[in-house]
Design the sequence.
């Protein structure tokens, strides 16, 4: 029900990289998927794993970029992967 609102809010950053929507206790009764959200956000992309997201970020992020990981559940694991890959590169 909030698909358009999420799309509007996520259109503010220059780049948006997403993973699948986390379903904790809910059932996807509206049949909405990340691909539906990404289709409404110009220039956004989505991946099925944190590893893919971390690789994408490391390939595309530039010096002085601010990288935020937002979400529920274990999204912190994605941030940790990005930090690990950054340390390996440095």
Sequence:
């Amino acid at each position: 029900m909030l698909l358009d609102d999420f799309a509007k809010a996520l259109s503010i950053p220059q780049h948006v990289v997403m993973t699948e929507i986390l379903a904790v206790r809910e059932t996807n009764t509206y049949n909405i998927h990340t691909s539906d959200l990404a289709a409404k956000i110009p220039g956004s992309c989505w991946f099925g794993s944190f590893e893919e997201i971390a690789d994408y970020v490391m390939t595309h992020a530039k010096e002085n970029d601010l990288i935020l990981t937002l979400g529920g559940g274990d999204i912190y694991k994605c941030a940790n992967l990005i930090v690990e890959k950054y340390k390996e590169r440095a």
